[in-house]
């Protein structure tokens, strides 16, 4: 009975909610395997996002009405990077988009190396669930691909129908085993490449 209370259930017709549930479960599994989550990139994005909000609020509630504050608003939009107080929404938002495009891509989790590990890089876990597809792809790679400690990427592609009941309940035992096997495969790849 207690397993029904804690069961994770989703709408099987909504691929976004399915992906979200699987991604959250992957995060739980990987961190339970001893990889602490690296939230530095998220913190940077939150900081830049708060700057964007402050700039937008400053532009919205500026002392003067529209015709008189026209030049100020143009300054906020065009972003003069040399004057900090006029750093605009567009510039900071562009930096945010650049971080997402270049660093995050499909990443759902960045980790530090496990405590006591000899590797100097953590994991970068990515996932894909294309629209109108039942194939969920999970990949584990080095968080720093240019590092000498970087290992080959390991990947799992499987139909989500093997992890969900027809009522939309995630069969966590099967999913947990599949993800743990992928993490273990990554660890074995790292041992193979050292030999």
Feature tags:
alpha+beta, 195 residues, 6 helices
Strand content: 5-15%
Helix percentage range: 40-55%
The outline comes out as globular
Number of E strands: 4
What Rg, in angstroms, do the CA atoms define?
Answer: 22 Å
| Tally of helical segments | 6
Can you write the helix and strand succession as a string? HHHHHEEEEH
Which structural category do the helix and sheet elements fall into?
alpha+beta
| Main sheet summary | 4 strands, antiparallel
- The residue ranges in which pLDDT falls below 50 over 5 or more consecutive positions are 80-86
Overall pLDDT metric: 80
Task: Summarize the entry for a quick read.
By secondary structure, the chain is α+β, with helices and mostly antiparallel strands.
Helices and strands in order, then pairings?
Blueprint: H1 2-5, H2 15-32, H3 40-60, H4 70-78, H5 89-104, E1 107-110, E2 123-128, E3 135-142, E4 154-159, H6 172-194
Antiparallel strand pairs: 1-2, 2-3, 3-4
Helix pairs in contact: 2-6, 3-5
Task: Walk me through what this model shows.
This protein is of the alpha+beta class and 195 residues long. It has six helices and four strands, in the order αααααββββα. A four-stranded antiparallel sheet has the order 1-2-3-4, covered by helices on one side. Helix 2 crosses helix 6 and helix 3 (40-60) runs antiparallel to helix 5 (89-104). The protein is globular.
